[in-house]
Amino acid sequence: MTEDLVRTGPLPEHAVRTALLELLAEHGTVTSTAAAARLGLSSGLCSFHLRQLARYGLIEEAPATDGRARPWRLPKPQEPSPASEFDELARGLEDESHQRWLARRADAPPEWQQDEAFSTVVYLTPAELAAVGGEVRRLLARYRDREGDPAARPAGARPVAAVARLFPLLDR
């Protein structure tokens, strides 16, 4: 199924790179083979994108444990750095992804030309803000097993970016 997915519509580069960064953040180190198995992609594709992330300093090689495998990791910070760098990268990739979608929507098969983008302002307390975020995460968690297990994906399923940003609007 994965090969059909790759042939009919490859994941955008940023989606693969974002998935690899998230995998590294979750597991600490990963090889291209392990990443491929977890993400349902080819080892060669993962290897290419891991090298590209390293080229721009977003990841680094980790010490090999068996002499053959080439593990990768997020760079060890020289000094404590906020998670905002990763957040900024993720937001940039999300924005780039959305712009690419808007530019190429007409090229998608008709059944995939719609999207569910929306925006609204709601009034929440800090506790409600956290609760809404938790609900969104729980809702999306129902579909997370499909990422690592291509057999769990229903026929016709494609990768879909799900982006939710909840933040207080500060006075100007």
Cα shape: globular
Distance between the termini: 50 Å
Derived from helix and strand composition plus strand pairing, the structural class reads mainly alpha
Count every beta strand, where a strand is a DSSP E run of 2 or more residues: 3
Radius of gyration: 18 Å
Major beta-sheet overview: 3 strands, antiparallel
Order of helices and strands: HHEHHEEHHH
Largest beta sheet: what is the strand line-up?
1-3-2
Low-confidence residue ranges: 1-11
β content, as a range? under 5%
Mean pLDDT: 81
Determine the number of helices (DSSP H or I, runs of at least 4 residues): 7
The helix content, as a percent range, equals 40-55%
Describe this structure in words.
By secondary structure, the protein is mainly α. Helix content is 49%, strand content 3%. A three-stranded antiparallel beta sheet has the order 1-3-2. Helix 2 packs across helix 4 and helix 3 (32-39) packs across helix 4 (43-55). The N and C termini lie far apart (50 Å). The model is unreliable at 1-11 (pLDDT under 50).
